[in-house]
Amino acid sequence: MADFHQNGNVATMHNLRSTTLQALERELMTFTQSRKISLILPSLFSELEGEALPNILNELANVPYLHRIVIGLDRADADQYRHALEFFDRLPQNHVVIWNDSPRMREIHSRLDALGLTPGEQGKGRNVWFCMGYIMACKDSAVVALHDCDILTYQREMLARLVYPVTNPDFPYQLAKGFYPRIGEGKLNGRVSRLLVSPVLIALKKVIGDRDYLDYLRSFRYPLSGEFAMRTTPLPDLRIPSDWGLEIGVLSEAWRNLAPKSVCQVEIADIYDHKHQPVSADDAAKGLSRMSIDICKSMFRKLAADGTVFNEEVFRTLKATYYRIALDALESYYNDAKFNGLSLDRHAEEMTIELFAHNIMEAGQVFLDSPAETPFIPTWSRVHAADPMLMANMLSAVAADMADYRA
């Protein structure tokens, strides 16, 4: 993906293959003398048993500039948490494992519920939110990065490239979003980004007219990437969704809270592959079907908050417009895949487009039927105002869990 194109909206940091990993890490070591970096790893226990995470940890073990690694562990019982502590102990850096299902953490959840500040349903968004709260409570990091735990092609250069733009004190960036080509096993991947997000953003522009927010989202080469880094200053006021809209939600918050010149995207890999979600066409509560609905709702909410009026006629028009644009895009993707010797199942992809078109209407109906819905997790600023001791108590809970269960 080496080029030097700038889209005019979001600065792009390219990989022109002219800087080595060693050079990047030497600079980062200098920067981190005054700007400490923490990394968030949101993980399901099942990922400890996969092939991706052991390699990720082997790569991270050689990263010299990380101050702290915070692992958020979901869907684990006591024995599994004990195993997780041993599993992550291969990391030489300062690290903690937050057992989100522990009795102590459930007590934290109960306190939030009692205040009317529920952190939402269990999922990646809630996991990341608690990890962010932990890092803020530590009060010693200037930069926080996040990436998924299922990256099969992980190399530590991904992290160095991701954090560099927000760590370099000479750069103005508050948020860096990673991008890369989604290819693996001889196939063109990234179905939700290719077949839903890009076409629906074009369709929205046609249906509701020009919006700076739409141009902003369209500027990102891979808006659904799970990799981003940001300076910690904006974290207390970050409002993120607890569902599959996390990635779009973070970009939307950057649009709302940060100056346009303080956001960039950075090319972090030549190839990227990770766990693929099933389409789940028969179950809208799972897989890519659920993801497509949550992503659409996230965009509709943001546009409504900026004054866009939605109704059933708008959503019907949007569905039809999206469908035609997505089919046209599929033609381009098919030709691109063929040109590069990759496979792409046109029939399966057209069926996925049909599902996404249906789910645009589903998301629109949910949006119209629930105007009072509060889809975002409360900001940590609000949590601290409501319960000034909660963040410190969470630090104590995590420390106590690790002390009690460490072998």
UniProtKB/TrEMBL annotation:
InterPro entries assigned: Nucleotide-diphossugar_trans
Superkingdom field: Bacteria
Descriptive protein name: Glucosyl-3-phosphoglycerate synthase
Species, as recorded: Rhodovulum adriaticum (Rhodopseudomonas adriatica)
Upper classification of the organism: Bacteria, Pseudomonadati, Pseudomonadota, Alphaproteobacteria, Rhodobacterales
